[in-house]
Amino acid sequence: MAERGKYDLYHYSPSVAAAAVAIVAFAILTLLHLYRMIRTRLWFCVPFTLGVELVGYIGRATGHNHPENLILYIIQSIFILVAPALFAASIYMTLGRLIRVTHAEAHSAIRVTWLTKLFVCGDVFTFFVQGGGGGILGTSDPDKVKLGQNVILGGLFLQILLFSLFVLVSIIFHIRLRKQPTQESHAPELQWEKMMMVLYAVSALIMTRNIFRVVEYIGGQDGPLLKIEWPIYVFDALLMAGMMAIWFIGYPTLIRPGQGKSFVEDTESGLQLPEHVSRTGIAVR
Question: Is 16 within 8 Å of 61 (Cβ atoms)?
Fold first, then answer.
């Protein structure tokens, strides 16, 4: 490890200005998501309203004046590290609901009853693995730091594998439904293909961020990416802010038309459908 000094935990003096920009961006995005979730009652999107990234960057800003504070270092490290795993849970659940609302269960590569359970349970596991690894990093013991990095790497590799499987399942579903559309998928209110584009976009951003994190931790505590600060803002903060913005614009309510019409909730999928479209695609009298 590098010789211990004033900024040993960070290897640099954390930038207050950069953290402030991230704090403002994530605060705005979190509030917007909270407003939309309450308005639409799509409670499975709650991970976007928890402000996990916000807390992480507040920790980094505070770390500028307290660079040797172990608690602050662990807080910012863990909260920024595990936030995408929380977002992923909502993304996984959206695919399952989209499959159900289009009545396209036969087109899913994995049985829909298992689809959400598989991905969300895997996601929760990677969340705790990465969180546990992050908690080990704030120590002066080189062996424990190495262990923490290896645990984080294991969690990140699992998350990348999980996301790769999710994208594959999504593509298979998309191709099959386009070739053999269901009656429900023709409803213009559903806009299911636009929702698939949103899923692909946010998945790509999270995958790119996770690959960056893998490269970062493979380099070790003395690696080049952990010795400078700007990469975490370019390849983590910026990508995650972009992901939250895309999810807000392409919220799961994109599968329904805009305001001004009445909606009923599909009891199996949790998604809201126009009153004039029943679960069989026949107009409700």
Answer: yes
Token couple for 231: 């990469």
Question: Residue for token digits 């705005």?
Answer: 28
Q: Where are the alpha helices (DSSP H) in 180-191?
A: none
Q: What is the pTM of this model?
A: 0.84
Complete DSSP assignment for 34-51:
HHHHHHHT-GGGGGGGS-
What distance in Å separates the CA atoms of residue 84 and residue 211, rounded to the nearest whole number? 12
CB 214 within 8 Å of CB 157: yes
Per residue in 185-240, pLDDT (tens digit) is: 988 888 899 999 999 999 999 999 999 999 998 887 777 888 899 999 999 999 99
> Cα–Cα distance between 20 and 57 in angstroms, integer?
8
Rounded to an integer, what distance in angstroms lies between the CA atom of residue 170 and that of residue 160? 15
Measured CA to CA in angstroms, residue 86 lies from 56, 116, 178, 280 at distances of 14, 14, 30, 33
